[in-house]
């Protein structure tokens, strides 16, 4: 298990980009090539956006407008997020991980809700702002929000990988694999990661999470795949999904 998590995979853009126009359907029905393509696209896009602080544009005036347009609880979620980032810059890495994980896993703040119910779409990757405005989302929204928040707290990007996994769930008479997404933190490049998971209350080493089987991992630097070994690169102009997500965030801040 540890070898799977710590293997140094190379990026796989060359053979994947030709698939970029395929439609992403329900997560549990994704084929590996389609998922690889989608994540490769996101991976390149990450390098084109400002990752320093996704909450930087949320000031007191914006919070006030959020309260007027939405409600007080929604404004509080956004305000608490900005405070989380502001007040924990000098915390240790372990403290940052724990506080960010607890913040987003708090069910009094955010409720797990499938995309089909929340967005009326099979698959929708929300920005952290959209996620907090809704106060709801599914597994990739939690992983993405934790990723960006930890970046804003100064955690190096090469220590973080958003990871697509299969999660084994026990059922009567057996078990099944459920597509899932988590965030991995690598203290060193060859370390077994710590796993931040919305479906699990505490941060655990991947070696303890025997219910997870990693398939893909990505950040803004590259994408790792347990089967591909091809190198390649694409121009940021060819990227759509992650850029569109960030554009939605900017649009939201402009109209709030």
Give your account of this protein's structure.
This protein is of the alpha+beta class. The protein contains nine helices and eight strands. It has helices spanning 2-6, 32-46, 60-69, 72-87, 93-105, 115-118, 128-134, 139-152, 241-255; strands at 111-112, 136-137, 160-171, 174-185, 194-196, 204-205, 212-218, 223-225. The strands form two sheets. A six-stranded antiparallel β-sheet has the order 6-5-4-3-7-8, covered by helices on one side. Strands 1-2 form a two-stranded parallel sheet. The radius of gyration is 18 Å and the shape is globular.
SSE order and pairing:
Elements: H1 2-6, H2 32-46, H3 60-69, H4 72-87, H5 93-105, E1 111-112, H6 115-118, H7 128-134, E2 136-137, H8 139-152, E3 160-171, E4 174-185, E5 194-196, E6 204-205, E7 212-218, E8 223-225, H9 241-255
Parallel strand pairs: 1-2
Antiparallel strand pairs: 3-4, 3-7, 4-5, 5-6, 7-8
């Amino acid at each position: 298990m540890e070898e799977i998590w710590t293997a140094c995979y190379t990026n796989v853009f060359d053979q994947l980009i030709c698939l970029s126009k395929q439609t992403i359907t329900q997560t549990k029905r994704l084929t590996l090539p389609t998922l690889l393509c989608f994540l490769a696209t996101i991976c390149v896009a990450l390098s084109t956006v400002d990752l320093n602080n996704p909450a930087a544009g949320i000031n007191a005036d914006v919070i006030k407008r959020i309260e007027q347009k939405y409600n007080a609880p929604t404004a509080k979620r956004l305000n608490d997020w900005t405070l989380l980032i502001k007040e924990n810059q000098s915390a240790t890495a372990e403290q940052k991980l724990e506080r960010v994980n607890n913040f987003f896993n708090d069910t009094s703040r955010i409720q797990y809700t499938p995309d089909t119910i929340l967005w009326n779409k099979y698959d929708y990757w929300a920005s952290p702002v959209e996620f907090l405005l809704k106060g709801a989302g599914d597994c990739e929204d939690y992983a993405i929000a934790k990723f960006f928040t930890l970046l804003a707290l100064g955690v190096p990007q090469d220590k973080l990988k958003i990871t697509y996994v299969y999660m084994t769930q026990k059922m009567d008479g057996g078990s099944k694999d459920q597509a899932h997404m988590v965030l991995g933190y690598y203290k060193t490049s060859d370390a077994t990661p710590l796993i931040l998971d919305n479906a699990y209350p505490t941060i655990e080493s991947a070696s303890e999470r025997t219910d997870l089987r990693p398939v893909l991992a990505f950040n803004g630097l590259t994408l790792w795949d347990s089967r591909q070994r091809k190198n390649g690169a694409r121009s940021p102009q060819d990227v759509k999904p992650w850029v569109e997500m960030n554009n939605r965030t900017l649009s939201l801040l402009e109209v709030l």
